[in-house]
Amino acid sequence: MNLVEMTWPEVSALSKDTPVVIPVAAIEQHGHHLPVVTDSLLLGEIIARVSARMADRVLFAPLQWLGNSHHHLDFAGTVSASPRVYLDLLNDLVECFLTHGFRRIVLVNGHGGNDIPAKQAIFEVRQRHRARPDLLLLMTTYWGLGTRPWEHDGDFEQREMGHACEWETSMVLRAAPHLVKPHERLETVPFGNAFLPGSRGWITKERTVPGHIGSPQLATAAKGEMLFSMFAADLEAWLERVLRWDGRSWEG
Fold first, then answer.
1. Which residues of 173-210 are buried (b: 16+ CB within 10 A; e: fewer)?
2. How many domains does the chain have?
3. What is the 3-state secondary structure (H, E, C) of the chain?
4. Angle between the 83-99 and 115-128 helix axes, to the nearest 10 degrees?
5. 121 vs 193, which has greater pLDDT?
6. Percentage of the chain with pLDDT > 90?
7. Cα atoms in the Cβ-side hemisphere of radius 13 Å centred on 162
8. Which residues have a Cβ under 8 Å from the Cβ of 143 and sit 6 or more positions away?
9. What pLDDT score was predicted for residue 252?
10. Cα–Cα distance list, 183 to 193, 215, 222, 229 (Å)
11. 96, 171, 197, 238: which could join 224 in a potential S-S bond, CB 3.0 to 4.6 Å?
12. Domain for residue 197, yes or no?
């Protein structure tokens, strides 16, 4: 079900155990070769594939294109909400659906910078409603659900999502090839270790001059289709767990 196509009485009549999916992405720089809409475009394609298969059981809210992208602000075209503003935005989005009586609310993320704020927002909402054991408040990032494309195609070099990289460039080549600028001669920008296993605060220009991180020159549309298929299958399987939740257990 697509929220924006429904009337308020239709939404009101839904079972309050219907999972509500809120996709969150970004508008930000993606190097010299990909458009600033990349994160929103890719998550939108994944949501479209999943919603086509789950349209009668899950309510899909419109994709939120404004993300937490302050680390990219040194690159033109980036539009961002500061972390605390973004936390309030996500909190209010979830609270709206709680006000309407829904009990299973899921943030599905498509931008790395949203990961920590989205987890924090879900945590904050749960603390405000700590007397509600009937609530299932969740967050996931689509590439973190277990997809390991290199195990299915040995041509994949990257072992994780980068930025305007082999993976993202492949998916844009599949979804909107007319938006991809020449990328075949670009050089790999290594991920680096950033004091792993610790976590370092960073801004993007410290890690990359052109704006990408990873190996966009290795991208193909065929890899993009494989990634879309795998990411959509993983998300669908995860949402099936949300649907199966018994309304009270810790496990899902």
1. bbbbeeebeebeebebbebeeeeeeeeeeeebeebbee
2. 1
3. CEHHHCCHHHHHCCCCCCCEEEEECCECCECECECCCHHHHHHHHHHHHHHHHHCCCCEECCCECCECCHHHCCCCCCEECCHHHHHHHHHHHHHHHHHCCCCEEEEEECCHHHHHHHHHHHHHHHHHCCCCCCCEEEEEEHHHCCCCHHHCCCCCCCCCCCECCHHHHHHHHHHCHHHCCCCCCCCCECCCCCCCCCCCCCCHHHCCCCCCEECHHHCCHHHHHHHHHHHHHHHHHHHHHHHHCCCCCCCC
4. 50
5. 121
6. 98
7. 28
8. 161, 167, 231
9. 72
10. 25, 10, 16, 23
11. 171
12. yes
The encoded tokens of residue 150 equal 């290199």
Q: Which residues pair with 79 in a beta bridge?
A: 27
The tally of CA atoms less than 13 A away on the side-chain side of residue 72 is 26
Structure tokens at 178: 């007319």
Q: Give the distance from CA 249 to its chain's centroid.
A: 26
Distance CA 18, CA 239 (A): 11
* Residue 7 maps to a domain: no
Q: Scanning the structure block, which residue is given the tokens 């960073």? A: 202
Rounded to the nearest 5°, which phi and psi values hold at 82? -65, 155
Answer whether 182's CB lies under 8 Å from 33's CB: yes
* Residue found under tokens 């991208």: 219
Q: What is the CATH number of the domain that holds 102?
A: 3.40.50.10310
Integer Cα distance of 240 and 174 in angstroms: 27
The answer to whether position 6 is within a domain reads no
For residue 146, give every residue at least 6 positions away whose Cβ sits within 8 Å of its Cβ, in sequence order, or none: 234
